Amino acid sequence: MEITTAARTLLEHKNRELWSISPHATVFEAIKLMADKSIGALPVVEGGRLAGIVSERDYMKKVALMGRSSKDTKVGEIMTCEVVTVAPEQSVAECMNLVTQFRVRHLPVVENGTLIDIISIGDLVRWIIATQRMTIEQLEKYIAGGYPG
């Protein structure tokens, strides 16, 4: 069963708060914001445009394991610059394929070059489970004779 729902629809049903950070902020500021908001990644925005993304993985690989200081290192030094993004019209199935193909956990949603939100793998899984649950309930009602013939 392919989920053809557009990413835009998924976004309409999720928490719309979007946090981002500047590439000039320190990594310490980024990890503190991620910890405070219980999120695993932050879009890096400069001049209103998506410049990259910084995640817990980036911190682990490029700061902690390299013996660098999070208070002295700028986000722009460790962020992932080549970001896999999606358009609001792309389907949930396409988003899941990108997450799987590129082994990422977060997909910034960009429209006309502007960041409008971010979809996490958790958002995608919750949407797919809810959609499948609804389909199962409809099929059970149909089988039990709940729909007129």
Query: What gross morphology would you assign?
Result: elongated
The helix/strand order is HHEEHHHEEH
Global Rg = 19 Å
| Structural class designation | alpha+beta
Largest beta sheet: what is the strand line-up? Answer: 1-2
Flag low-confidence runs. none
Q: What does the average pLDDT come to?
A: 91
Strand tally is 4
Number of helices: 6
CATH topology: CBS-domain
Fraction of residues in helices?
A: 40-55%
Q: What is the subunit organization of this protein?
A: single chain
CATH class value: Alpha Beta
Instruction: Domain count, please report it.
Output: 1
Largest sheet: 2 strands, antiparallel
Kindly, what is the distance between the CA atoms of the first and last residues, rounded to a whole number of angstroms? 24 Å
Give me a quick take on this structure.
The chain has 149 residues and is of the alpha+beta class. It has one domain: CBS-domain (Roll).
Plain-language structure description:
This protein is of the alpha+beta class. It contains 6 helices and 4 strands. It is elongated. It has one domain: CBS-domain. The longest helix has 23 residues. A two-stranded antiparallel sheet has the order 1-2. A two-stranded antiparallel ribbon has the order 3-4.
